[in-house]
Specification:
The chain is an all-alpha fold and 226 residues long. The protein has one domain (2-125, 183-225). Helices cover 87% and strands 0% of the residues. The chain contains eight helices and no strands. The chain has helices at 2-10, 15-41, 46-58, 62-68, 74-87, 93-111, 115-154, 158-225. Helix 2 (15-41) packs parallel to helix 8 and helix 3 runs parallel beside helix 8. The radius of gyration is 30 Å and the shape is rod-shaped. The termini are far apart.
């Protein structure tokens, strides 16, 4: 009974799987475009502002340092969080460090928004396509079985009809394999974009930590001299 129900479901074919892959492809492209625009908007060339920022920190000019990192970026938001903590009256470097570490976590969460969906699509799209191929193969063999039965009942020229049926089955199998190809086509850009975005986040996180250490070292040196 269960096998018959599953067979009925399988005979629906792979077309709905192809539509599902199309929808997933559109969704993944939307996520990639959104993340690209977000990364571009928050891109800050730290090598251009680092010297001025380090000098402002060494001079304990917090207002100047805050002005330098006023733009919305991964690293600048982290540094600005530490400056605002110092402006609020925190004198211990540990409190400033914890404030910036928390900012790094917030920025990573903000930049990773939607990437879990992109990774899921990239990892599972080939399996969805393979599922569609299996459904298409089941449908093609079911149609072949029905054609064989009708040939036997009609008593027609078996060899000629067998050739026609085989050609029809080959065509159906070719259509079924399209689902696997589409699944791979959807997965490749999704995985590539996911890895690229994760790499950029890791790079910005490392830069934030390096700048944080440099900032804390500058503050400690200035305090010791004082």
């Amino acid at each position: 009974m269960l096998s018959e129900k599953l067979l009925e479901f399988s005979l629906v074919g792979a077309e709905w799987v192809l539509w599902l892959l199309v929808i997933l492809s559109v969704f993944s492209v939307a996520v990639m475009l959104d993340r690209y625009l977000a990364f571009r908007r928050t891109n800050v060339r730290m090598e251009e502002i680092e010297p001025a920022f380090s000098k402002a920190i060494a001079d304990r000019d917090l207002s100047k340092a805050k002005e330098i990192v006023a733009s919305d970026g991964f690293v600048t938001n982290v540094l600005r969080s530490g400056i605002e903590t110092m402006e609020s009256g925190a004198s211990e470097s540990g409190a400033v460090e914890q404030s910036m570490l928390a900012a790094i976590v917030r920025e990573k969460d903000r930049h990773e928004r939607g990437l879990v969906h992109l990774g899921t699509i990239g990892n599972n799209a080939p399996f969805i396509g393979l599922f569609g191929t299996v459904l298409g193969i089941i449908q093609s063999f079911e149609q072949l079985g029905q054609a064989k039965g009708s040939v036997g009942e009609a008593g027609q020229a078996v060899s000629q009809l067998d050739a026609q049926n085989n050609a029809a089955v080959m065509a159906l199998l070719g259509e079924a394999l399209v689902a696997t190809a589409v699944g791979i086509l959807v997965a490749i850009p999704a995985v590539a974009a996911y890895n690229a975005f994760k790499s950029r986040i890791a790079e910005r996180s490392r830069t934030s930590e390096a700048m944080m250490r440099s900032m804390l070292a500058g503050l400690s040196t200035r305090s010791d001299e004082g």
